[in-house]
Design brief:
mainly alpha, Ribonucleotide Reductase, subunit A
Length: 283
């Protein structure tokens, strides 16, 4: 066994920072959105894509996230951390570009959106990270469901696979960045930082709940819920959460095990699993 892997990693150490940043930069995939080959889809598949009530929210969120992360990268004084955060900002901007290409290619109308840079980059970056931890856990499961059910055709799944994997890298970076910064603080400053973390997490949870309710309302107006259930197949709430847990573990497994993993959402999911029914679909 490699001696470095066998030795415990001290959170907040220079080794922790270097491992975090090297993991992130070395696992970067340098593909370019302009080089992607968009498949020709039949009208039924395009109609399913257009019916998804997510595009406006997704484009807006990615554009805001990209600008906020790039702003944080420019504000970070540590050059090693700055390089890694700026790279994440580039990846977030690339996600926004890919969504724009998809909606343009398949004629999905999305209004133009021009985000504003955050006034407090550190606070914005903290909130974004917790938001991605919430989003990614369920997105991993939904993507697997759409892939396995045929809701997304294989060529489209292949195009979006790198994005899903990048989200896994982002949330690993986030939880380690949080832990590193907290460990670097004097003991007297840590309670305030923990409170700030809790507030950021709470605000992102509330934001996700509001977004989910908004999308659910729009979906019900378009009868999307019934149609999607028919396409995805009969999966119970418990089976879906189990799928999310498996996919979350699979997505994060390739990376150095010494780095921390997001635990909050998976822990809640595992604790609540016995209370979820095995029968009756997601609708």
């Amino acid at each position: 066994m490699n001696a470095d892997i066998a030795r415990p990693l001290v959170v907040g150490s220079a080794e922790h920072k270097d491992l975090l940043c090297s993991f992130f930069t070395e696992s970067h995939d340098p593909y370019k959105p302009a080089d992607l080959k968009w498949p020709v889809l039949d009208e039924a598949v395009i109609a399913r894509l257009k019916a998804l009530p997510i595009w406006e929210e997704a484009v807006r969120t990615e554009a805001e996230t990209a600008l906020a992360v790039l702003t944080m990268g420019a504000a970070e004084k540590d050059p090693v951390l700055s390089k890694a955060i700026t790279l994440q900002g580039y990846e977030e901007k690339r996600h926004a570009e890919i969504l724009k290409l998809l909606t343009d290619t398949y004629g999905i109308p999305v209004p133009a959106f021009n985000p504003e840079a955050p006034k407090d980059p550190n606070w914005a970056f903290m909130r974004i990270g917790y938001g991605e931890c919430f989003d990614s856990f369920f997105a991993f499961g939904l993507f697997a469901l759409a892939r396995d059910s045929g809701f997304f055709p294989p060529p489209l799944v292949e195009l979006f696979e790198p994005i899903m994997q990048e989200e896994g890298r982002h949330i690993i970076f986030h939880v380690n960045w949080i832990a590193y910064n907290q460990a670097k603080l004097p003991y007297a400053g840590r309670p305030g930082y923990v409170f700030k973390r809790g507030l950021a997490m709470w605000l992102q949870a509330v934001s996700r709940l509001k977004t989910a309710m908004k999308i659910k309302g729009e979906a019900e107006q378009d009868n999307f819920t019934m149609n999607a259930h028919a396409q995805f197949g009969d999966i119970s709430p418990r089976e879906f959460v189990e799928l999310c847990l498996r996919e979350n573990e699979r997505r994060l497994a390739p990376y150095d095990t010494r780095l921390l993993r997001p635990e909050f959402v998976p822990s809640i999911a595992r604790a609540g699993l016995p209370t979820l029914p095995r029968r009756g679909g997601l609708n």
